[in-house]
Amino acid sequence: MKSFPNLFPAGAVRPLGRRTMMIFGFAMxxxxxxxxxxxAAERPRERPLPLNQTxxxxxxxxxxxxxxxxxxxxxxxxxxxxxxxxxxxHHVPYKSFTLEIDDHVESPSANLEGLDCWTFFExxxxxxxxxxxxxxxxxxxxxxxxxxLTRYRGGHCSGDYLERIHYLAExxxxxxxxxxxxxxxxxxxxxxxxxxxxxxxxxV
Length: 204
Fold this sequence. Notes:
Blueprint: E1 13-15, H1 18-27, E2 32-34, H2 51-54, E3 55-56, H3 58-70, H4 78-87, E4 93-95, E5 110-111, H5 117-130, H6 140-151, H7 168-177, E6 181-183
Parallel strand pairs: 3-5
Antiparallel strand pairs: 1-4, 2-6
C-alpha cells in the first residue's frame, strides 16, 4: 500500500488523480452513513465573512448544479449522489489551507477550484444534501449552509475559530449525536469505544 503523500507547503497546488481523490475523500466516510433527511440549520442573518471572500468557483458550481438537475441526481440514494458529485472534481488540483481565509475571523467557506481530502469530502456531502432540497434555484449560500451544518459544533458559526470541528473523531461523535450522520462503527465485530479520553483543541 502506498503511503500518504507528503503535505504540500501552504498554497501549493498539485493535480490529484481520480483514484487518489476518491481514496482520500471517502476514507473520511469510513464507518459513517450520511443521514438522508437532515438539512441545514437555519441560515444566520449575516455570515461572519462576505461571500466574495468565502466562496471560490461559482461558475463550476453552476455547471455542476445544472448537470445534477438535468440528470435528476436528486432521485438517487445519497451515497450514489456523493459519487456523482465526486466525479465532477476529478481534475481539480490539490490545494492546502483553503479554510484559512482570515487571520481573525472564522466563516463557512468552500473552494471548488482547489481541494484537500477533507474539503473534497465535505463539499461532495454538501452538494448531495443541497440538491435533495427542492428549490427553484440554488446558490453558493445553499451549499455553505450544508457545509456549516457538519463543519461546526451544533451547526453554527459566529466567527470563532474554535467553533470549527478540528478532529475527525470529534466530527464523527458530534455529527452522530445531532443525527447528521449515523456512525456505524460500533456495529463492526470487535469494535470498542475508548471511554474517558478527552481531546480539546488548542490545549495548552
